[in-house]
Design goal:
Two copies of one chain form a homodimer.
Chain A: E1 11-24, E2 27-34, E3 44-45, E4 47-50, H1 57-69, E5 76-82, E6 93-103, E7 117-121, H2 132-147, E8 160-162, H3 163-174, H4 180-190, E9 193-200, E10 208-213, H5 215-223
Parallel strand pairs in A: 1-6
Antiparallel strand pairs in A: 1-2, 1-4, 2-3, 2-7, 5-6, 8-10, 9-10
Chain B binds a DNA duplex through helix 4.
Protein name (chains A, B): NUDIX hydrolase
Keywords (chains A, B): Hydrolase
GO molecular function (chains A, B): hydrolase activity
DNA sequence: GCAAAAGTGTTTTGGCTACACCCATGG
DNA sequence: CCATGGGTGTAGCCAAAACACTTTTGC
C-alpha cells in the first residue's frame, strides 16, 4: 500500500455519465437506460457508473458504456464535472460527464441493446433523473460548437454514406436547414472524403454516390492545424 | 446522516487546481505558489486544495483561491478533470481544473500576495509539479478560444482602461500582433464600452481616452446570442 | 411521361485585412 | 520645434450566402 499523504481530507464518490449520441436516418438520438436500482429506480437516466481505484476517467467511461451496451473502444470526450451537493439524493456524488458519437446501426453491437436501454430522438426524450437533463443540453451545445472546428459525425454515420446523409446529420445537429450546393462545396474543399464508384439506390431512382471518410488525409490536415468548419 | 445507497463503491480524493491569469501592463501572467507540504514540497505549483463535503466545486475553487491569496468572489470557469492514476504521487487524487482572470493590480487584494505566491510571465514560468504544466497549457488554449466568442479580459484590466491596454491584452493572449485600427473598429462594433471624458496621461503627452466596460449593454447582447469575436 | 431525388456554378455581398498620415502635447 | 504615442478611413480581396435548372430512371 502506497503512503497516504492526505489522510485527513474528505473522500467522495466519483461517477461518470455518458451522453451517447446516435444518428438514425434523419434523426439525432440519445441513448438512455431505465435505472434498475435505487434511488429513482425505473426512471430514465444516462448511462453511468462509478470510477474505480484502478482506472482513470476515460477508462471508466468506456467500461461503463461497454457493460451497459456492449459498445467497445469508442471515442469519448469529457466535457464537464457536476458537483452540486444534492445532485444525487442517494449519496453525495460528483459526476464527470462524457459524450460520444456512434452509428445507431453499427454492426459493432448489431444495433441490439441490453434490456432497458433505448434510443430517443433528442427532442422527444423523456425527463431524466438528477441533473441529467442539464448534462444532455450542455453536450448538445458542445457538439454544435465542435462542428465549427472538427469534421464531426463520421462516427455517427455508417462507413459508406451519401452526401445527403451527411447533410441531414449536420442539419440535425445544428437544428437548421443548409443549402445543398454550399454544403457539398464546403465538404469537398475539406478534401477528407473518398468518393466511391458505388451508388446507394435505396434513396432515389437515380441513386446517389457513396463516400468514405479518409482518415489518413484527415490526420495530415489535422497536424497542419487545418480548420474544418462547415 | 443521510441514507447511503452506494456503500460498496470506491471513494477518492477530489482536488481543485486554479490557473489564475493576470495581466500586468504588457504581460499575461499566471499565479503560482511554492508548495509547503509533502510530497514535492518547495516546488512550484498551481493554487489548489481538496473538495470538502459541504461545498460544490465552484465553491471549493473560490475558497482555495481566497485562502491562498485573499482574492474573493471572482469568476472562475471549470475546464477539465484530470484523473491519471499516478498523477499525484502522494495519493490517488482526481483534480478538477479551473481558470480565472484578474487584474494583477486589483485593489481587491492590494496586489499583495501571501508568502510563497508569485506572478510569473506565462512564457517564463517554472516547471510545475504533477500534470500542472499540462493544465496551464490547456487553460491557455481555452482562454484563446474564448476570445473568439466572448469579450474576455475586462476582468483582467482595471475598471478604466485605454484601447491600447485592451489591445495589448489581446495580443498577449493570442500571442500575435494586431492592427491598431482594425482592433479599435472591431471593439467599437461590439458596442459594449463607454468612452469616458477622462484621459490617461501617463502613457503619452497627448493622453489617451479611458473606456469602461458597460455590463448592461453586454448582457443584453449576450441574451440575443451576439457573437463577440475580435 | 412523370415524379422524386441527385447533381452541378455563378453572382452578389459583407466582413476582414492591409495600409499611412495628421494630431496634440510636454519637454 | 520635435519626439512620442494617439487617433482616424478606405480600398481591395476573399469567403460565405443566395440562388435554379438539368439529369436519371423506376414506375
Amino acid at each position: 500500500m502506497k503512503l497516504q499523504y492526505y489522510q485527513k481530507e474528505d473522500q467522495v464518490l466519483l461517477a461518470v455519465d455518458c451522453i451517447i449520441f446516435g444518428f438514425d436516418k434523419k434523426d439525432l438520438k440519445v441513448l438512455l437506460v431505465k435505472r434498475d436500482f435505487e434511488p429513482e429506480k425505473g426512471k430514465w437516466s444516462l448511462i453511468g457508473g462509478f470510477l474505480k481505484r484502478n482506472e482513470n476517467l476515460d477508462e471508466a467511461a468506456n467500461r461503463v458504456l461497454n457493460t451497459l451496451t456492449g459498445i467497445k473502444d469508442i471515442y469519448m470526450e469529457q466535457f464537464y464535472t457536476y458537483s452540486e451537493i444534492d445532485r444525487d439524493p442517494g449519496q453525495r456524488t460528483i459526476s464527470v460527464a462524457y459524450f460520444a458519437l456512434i452509428d445507431v446501426h453499427s454492426h459493432q453491437f448489431d444495433g441490439i441493446l441490453i434490456d432497458g436501454a433505448q434510443w430517443f430522438k433528442l427532442n422527444k426524450r423523456p425527463q431524466l433523473i438528477f441533473d441529467h437533463n442539464q448534462m444532455v443540453q450542455k453536450a448538445i451545445n458542445r457538439l454544435r460548437r465542435k462542428t465549427q472546428t472538427k469534421p464531426i459525425g463520421f462516427e455517427l454515420l455508417p462507413e459508406k454514406f451519401t452526401m445527403r446523409q451527411l447533410q441531414n446529420l449536420y442539419e440535425s445537429i445544428l437544428d437548421c436547414k443548409l443549402d445543398k450546393r454550399n454544403f457539398i462545396n464546403k465538404v469537398n474543399q475539406l478534401d477528407i472524403l473518398d468518393k466511391l464508384d458505388e451508388k446507394d439506390m435505396t434513396s432515389s431512382r437515380k441513386g446517389s454516390f457513396l463516400y468514405r471518410f479518409n482518415e489518413k488525409k484527415y490526420k495530415e490536415k489535422l497536424e497542419e492545424g487545418f480548420n474544418f468548419k462547415i
